[in-house]
Automatic annotation (TrEMBL):
The chain crosses the membrane at residues 424-445. PANTHER family: NITRATE/NITRITE SENSOR PROTEIN NARX-RELATED (PTHR24421), NITRATE_NITRITE SENSOR PROTEIN NARQ (PTHR24421:SF10). One of its GO terms (molecular function) is ATP binding. InterPro entries: HATPase_C_sf (IPR036890), HATPase_dom (IPR003594), Sensor_HK_TwoCompSys (IPR050482), Sig_transdc_His_kin_sub3_dim/P (IPR011712), TPR-like_helical_dom_sf (IPR011990). It catalyses: ATP + protein L-histidine = ADP + protein N-phospho-L-histidine. Residues 1-20 form the signal peptide. GO terms for cellular component: membrane. Its EC number is 2.7.13.3. This is histidine kinase. Residues 460-487 form a coiled coil. Residues 586-677 form the Histidine kinase/HSP90-like ATPase domain. It comes from the Bacteria. Keywords: ATP-binding, Coiled coil, Kinase, Membrane, Nucleotide-binding, Phosphoprotein, Signal, Transferase, Transmembrane, Transmembrane helix, Two-component regulatory system.
Length: 680
């Protein structure tokens, strides 16, 4: 037999769901019933993908929006459509933007609607705990806004979710609150019409047929009075709602074995379906109608009728309905004594349910297999049934506990928020006063400390400048001594050697010789030698090398003076057009001493054949690299060799010093200075 429906209103496929009702453009949003949401069903995966692709350009535009206020129509429109897709990232990103905007502008209805839309989105992708969580967040905001109508309709949606999850008593409690308010204050609400029907299914075991009929009649009376006037619902939604109501009533009659009533009511549903046709709706109603006739003994074509419904459900990819129809076919075939066909359809239902994690339907399929085919009563299948029963019980218990926890947390959070508002006001006042006092105290001590630091810094700068001046002065004295020595040598060459060469050449010219060719050759050689000595003399006397006593020259001369017993070749490379104006005097002094210490270590310990000193600029950083190919430094000696002194100088120079060494492969020291920091 066809199973009881799991949603209040019969699933109405969305023929116009993308037309949403929520695109209010005012700064303050007014609440209005979302009919698309009320009469919606979960779209299939294919439908979600199709909608997502269709609105991709608008989605990208909306995500790039920086000013939500000026683009509200676009954002609202895209959000309404994204809620029918599986594009979680885009939907939640836009929703959070809208929530922030609403909170900033104190637009409570827009904020609550955003939470309710998120719940709707999670409902479509079957994340029930998230659905309930956001329903409660929406309810709390509606409560702050004192919007009783919105709260009543929100409670209806909560009850519909709880019913679908099998939490009937919890659903009934929420539903009673919703109906109580709507009955008194909004008797023409479409939500009230649906709430009457849900109440029947919440109390199927408790209500008599007359009581259930009375509730259906109340809902039907409200709808039929609106026909042609369309005050409660638009024309499109009106016929969808009427079809749904007759379908639910027919399903109810079928479940309580009132087959004739089920047949007549299903006929009514089919009549109204023609005004707003949907294939999946037709498949469902046609199944009820066919079964109602069959159970009265009036339908020889029951198999063909059910197969027609199954084919529609399969074509439209509604797995849930496929499983239910397969179970019904298995039951009917068994009733017709066609055991193999019954087994085949029941196994198909079992396989589909298991593949799609439809535990309740999987359980029903196993029960039908065990009931109709004793050969299937294997220990494995019985174990699976027991496991499913436990799993379903645990799932329901876990869901109930989780929802209770969510509701408690939501209630607690609401109360805490009220208390926090008062406390925050007090705390802000006290904190403001304390902050002002603290700022004054901090400024006082900071200025005092800064003055001391500036005095210390100025003293250090003065000392470092003195050291640099001494280095330059020492270099000047050394260069002057070298230049004086060169001038003396040049004078001696000019006055002594050249004159001697001239006298020899002159006397040679005066000699009479038989070998005139040899005489001429020797005279020419002496002339050439005179010119060479003269050139050397002039070069020594007039040389301007090292006349510029810059920091760069200090480094050049320091490297040139290096020598050791290992015959290490020292190579210095300074980047072309590199200027040292970007670093301070303190930094120059410390760079010089670090380089001096490193070169001394190489001369003493490295046994290197080559050493490279490279100075270059990299991304506003002055980088000094000292690298040799020597024996390296053992780990137990890594803190010696003047490294501590170099690190201390690097710290003073606001530089980073890194040492890397491998045994028998050499050592490299890298000194890095941020020139931007130095300039500031």
């Amino acid at each position: 037999m066809l199973k009881k429906i799991t949603a209040v209103i019969y699933p109405l496929l969305f023929s116009g769901l993308i037309l949403g009702t929520s695109g209010c453009q005012d700064n303050k949003t007014t609440y209005q019933t979302d009919l698309d949401y009320l009469y919606s069903t979960k779209p299939t995966e294919g439908q979600r993908d199709s909608i997502s692709k269709a609105i991709e350009p608008q989605t990208l535009r909306a995500l790039k929006v920086k000013n939500i206020e000026s683009s509200l129509p676009l954002v609202d429109s895209v959000l309404d459509q994204l809620s029918w897709t599986g594009n979680k990232n885009a939907f939640l990103s836009l929703s959070q933007s809208v929530i922030k905007f609403a909170q900033k502008n104190k637009d409570l209805n827009r904020e609550a609607k955003a939470y309710q839309d998120i719940a709707f989105f999670y409902n479509n992708i079957e994340q029930s705990d998230s659905v309930y969580h956001y329903y409660l967040k929406a309810e709390n905001v509606y409560s702050i806004a004192q919007d009783s109508l919105a709260m009543a309709e929100n409670k209806y949606y909560q009850s519909r979710l709880l019913y679908r999850l099998g939490l009937f008593s919890e659903s009934k409690k929420k539903l009673t609150q919703s109906i109580d308010y709507l009955d008194r204050n909004k008797p023409k609400s479409p939500i009230l019409i649906e709430a009457y029907q849900l109440m029947i299914f919440c109390q199927t075991e408790e209500l008599s047929l007359d009581q259930a009929q009375t509730l259906f009649d109340q809902a039907l009376d409200k709808l039929t009075k609106d026909e042609g006037r369309f005050e409660i619902l638009t024309q499109q939604k009106y016929y969808s709602a009427l079809t749904g109501l007759y379908t639910n009533l027919a399903s109810y009659y079928l479940n309580i074995n009132e087959y004739k009533q089920a047949e007549l009511t299903a006929q009514q549903a089919l009549t109204y379906l023609n005004k707003e046709y949907s294939a999946i709706n037709y498949a469902y109603i046609h199944s009820i109608y066919a079964l109602a006739k069959y159970y009265q003994g009036n339908n020889e074509n029951i198999i063909e009728d059910l197969l027609l419904s199954y084919d529609i459900q399969k074509r439209l990819d509604y797995t849930n309905y496929q499983v239910e129809t397969s179970l019904t076919l298995g039951d009917i075939y068994n009733d017709l004594k066609q055991k193999q066909e019954s087994l085949d359809w029941t196994m198909k239902a079992y396989t589909l349910a298991k593949e799609n994690n439809l535990f309740r339907l999987q359980k029903e399929a196993i029960e039908l297999l065990l009931l109709n085919d004793k050969n299937k009563a294997t220990a494995l299948l019985i174990d699976e049934l027991i496991h499913l029963n436990r799993k379903l019980d645990l799932q329901q218990q876990t869901t109930r506990e989780k929802f209770t926890e969510i509701e408690y947390e939501s209630f607690t959070l609401s109360k805490e928020n009220e208390q926090l508002k008062y406390r925050i006001t007090i705390i802000i006042g006290v904190a403001t006063v304390l902050t002002i006092l603290l700022v004054f105290v901090i400024l006082f001590f900071r200025l005092k400390s800064r003055n001391k630091a500036l005095e210390s810094l100025n003293l250090r700068k003065s000392k470092d400048q003195e050291i640099l001046n001494l280095l330059i002065e020492n270099n000047n004295i050394e260069q002057q001594a070298v230049q004086n020595e060169r001038n003396r040598v040049a004078k001696d060459l000019h006055d002594g050697v050249i004159n001697s060469l001239f006298t020899i050449r002159f006397n040679l010219q005066q000699l009479e010789s038989k070998n005139t060719d040899m005489q001429t050759l020797l005279i020419n050689e002496l002339l050439s030698l005179e010119q060479i000595v003269r050139d050397i003399s002039h070069a020594l006397a007039q040389s301007n090398l090292f006349k510029n006593k810059s920091f760069e020259n200090l480094i050049v001369e320091l490297v040139q003076k290096q020598s050791n017993s290992f015959k290490t070749v020292f190579n210095l490379h300074i980047e072309q057009n590199l200027t040292f104006d970007c670093i301070t005097t303190i930094q120059k002094v410390n760079i010089y001493h670090i380089l001096q210490e490193a070169l001394q270590n190489i001369n003493k310990h490295s046994k290197a054949t080559e050493c490279l000193i490279d100075i270059a600029m990299q991304d506003h950083h002055l980088v000094v690299l000292i690298k040799d190919n020597g024996v390296g430094i053992a780990k137990n000696k890594i803190n010696g060799l003047g490294l501590a002194s170099m690190k201390e100088r690097a710290k003073v120079a606001q530089a980073t010093l890194n040492l890397s060494s491998k045994i028998q492969k050499g050592t490299s020291i890298t000194l890095t200075i941020d020139t931007k920091q130095a300039e500031s």
